[in-house]
C-alpha cells in the first residue's frame, strides 16, 4: 500500500499540516519535541485506531481544542490508481470518534480498519523485551487488529466484561454488596468465553510469527542463538488445546483465585494478565539478555511483524521508524535497510542525518519539522 498524503489538524502539536509522500522513503528531521513522533503516531492511528503512547483521545487532540482530525489519501496495490482511498478520523477530547472512508461514515471500527497497514518501530519497542508483560500484550493486540480487524471487537467485548467483573469485585471488597456465587458465576462464564477468544488468537499469532522471527534472529545474530516465543496464560496451556479444555483450565484458575480476587477487588486471571515468554537458548531474554541481544530480538520481532503482515495482506505495509535507526549498530541497520529495500514505503524520523548512508539518502525525500510545522 502507498500513503500518498496526510493532513492533520489540531492533533498533538500540529495546527493544520499537510504532507505529500512523493518518494518511497521519507525522512523527517527535527530536534527533540518538535512533532516527529506525533506525525508517525497519526499514521499508526489510522492503521490500528490505537495510539502506542496514550490511551485517551484527549491527549491526542491539541491542547485547548476539542476536536482533532487525521486525514489520509492512500492507494492499495489491488485497486487501480483511479481509486485512491480517502480516510478521515476525527477525535474529540470527550472520547467520541468519527470515522469516514471515502466520505462515508463508518459506525464500526472494523469497517475502517484494514485500509492502512503499518508497522511502527520506535525506541518504546525496546520495552517489548525488557518492559512489563503489558507491552508484549499490547504488541500482540496491535498486530492482531491489523491481521483480523474483527479482533478489535473481541478485545472491546472482553474489556467490557472485565470492567464489569472488576466493578463487582470492588464493591464486594468495599462491603457495598455481598458475594453471591451465582452472580459471580455469570461473570466468570463471560470472562472465560470472551477471554479464550483472545488467548487463542494471540497464541496462534505467535505460532505464525515465531518461525519468521527465528529466521531473522539467526540471520542477525550469526546463527548461534535459538529463539523461542511462547504465550503464557495464568493456567497450563498448549496452543493445540481444544476450546473446551482451555475453558476448563481457565475456570479452574479463576476458582483457585476466588478468595484473593475478593480480597484484592480485581480479576487476577485472564488475557489482561497473560505473559509472552521470549527465550534465547532457553534463557529468558528479559532477565539475562545483554542489551545487544535484546536489540537484535526486538529487530527480529519487528521484521517478523512486517513480513507476516505483508504475506497476509498481500502487499507490504508502511514502515514507521521513529528515531531508531541511529540506535542500531551498522550491522543491524543493514539488516533492516536491506529488508525494506524499495518495496516498503518507509517514513523515518531522526534528529540528525549523520547516521544515514549517503547513497540511501539520495533516494529519500527529506522534510524538516520544527514546532509542529513541516517544511521541505
Ligand atoms: N495534545 C497536545 N497538544 C499540544 N501539544 C502536544 C500535545 N501532545 C504533545 N504535544 C507536544 O508535542 C511535542 C512532542 O512531539 P513529539 O513527541 O512528536 O516529539 P519528537 O519530535 O518525536 O521528539 P523526540 O525526539 O524527543 O521524541 C511536545 O512539544 C509536546 O508538548
Automatic annotation (TrEMBL):
One biological process term from GO is: SOS response
Protein localization: Cytoplasm
According to the UniProt entry, its GO molecular function terms are: ATP binding; single-stranded DNA binding
Q: Which residues bind ATP?
A: 30-37
> Where's it mainly located?
cytoplasm
InterPro entries, A to Z: DNA-binding_RecF, DNA-binding_RecF_CS, P-loop_NTPase, RecF/RecN/SMC_N, RecF_2
Q: Where is the RecF/RecN/SMC N-terminal domain?
A: 2-369
- UniProt keyword annotations, A-Z: ATP-binding, Cytoplasm, DNA damage, DNA repair, DNA replication, DNA-binding, Nucleotide-binding, SOS response
Q: Which Pfam families match?
A: SMC_N
GO cellular component: a single term? cytoplasm
Matches recorded under PANTHER family = DNA REPLICATION AND REPAIR PROTEIN RECF
The family note in this entry says: Belongs to the RecF family.
Protein function? The RecF protein is involved in DNA metabolism; it is required for DNA replication and normal SOS inducibility. RecF binds preferentially to single-stranded, linear DNA. It also seems to bind ATP.
The protein depicted here goes by the name DNA replication and repair protein RecF
